[in-house]
Amino acid sequence: MNLYSDIERYRPCCPQEEADRKQMLSFMEKNTDYLDRSNQTAHFSASAWTFNKARTKVLMVYHRLYDSWSWTGGHADGNEDLRSVALCELKEETGVRTPRLLTPDIFSLEILTVDGHFKKGAYVPSHLHLNITYLAEADEADTLIVNEAENRAVKWWSPDDALRVSSEPWFAERIYRKLNEKAFSLFARCSG
């Protein structure tokens, strides 16, 4: 596993991904602490865009910090295996037992802004998340559990409703819509 090589090999689907890919590679070349949140300018995070087996619903959490329905994900915290970070965060934030990645490859990448906030009584300055997204699947029958430290709720939404319930317009239009479109294109290729 080599994160730099994975990002270098990734083929962007749009101008946003191409620009963000270049920035990520450049940042990695200039900073050795890109996997650790001690780098308060930017650091890597991983997310999962998770469908049920029927491909009719997307699993989302109501995120406390962002006060919005969102995908699951979290900080790399030194772990270069962002696939395992994405799956671990998915389990921790939702309670699903045996999620799996639908492909081991990077599904999407994006640089996300994080506004300054307080966490555990300490101020965290505004910074960037160099985010890698993976496409996952989970069993809709699993009992969902709210991780009180991070979420207020966990719920399956239709892919269209996932866009509607997010109170972050940029995420809904630029990220979640892109993820849905890419996923349905992949599902159509795999079934055809």
What would you note in describing this structure?
The strands form 2 sheets. Strands 1, 2, 3, 4, 5, 6, 9 and 10 form an 8-stranded mixed beta sheet that branches. Strands 7-8 form a two-stranded antiparallel sheet. With 192 residues, it is of the alpha+beta class. It has one domain (3-191): Nucleoside Triphosphate Pyrophosphohydrolase (Alpha-Beta Complex), CATH 3.90.79.10. Helices cover 34% and strands 29% of the residues. Helix 4 runs antiparallel to helix 5.
Distance between the termini: 31 Å
Main sheet overview = 8 strands, mixed
Strand element count:
10
Which segments are poorly predicted (pLDDT under 50) over 5 or more consecutive residues? Answer: none
Order of helices and strands: HHEEEEHEEEEEEHH
Proportion of residues in β-strands:
25-35%
Query: Which CATH-level-2 architecture?
Result: Alpha-Beta Complex
- Quickly count the helices: 5
CATH superfamily: Nucleoside Triphosphate Pyrophosphohydrolase
Radius of gyration: 16 Å
Report the CATH topology name. Answer: Nucleoside Triphosphate Pyrophosphohydrolase
- Kindly give the count of domains: 1
- Rounded mean pLDDT score: 96
Quaternary structure annotation = single chain
What is the CATH class?
Alpha Beta
Class per helix and strand makeup: alpha+beta
Percentage of helical residues? 25-40%
Global outline: globular
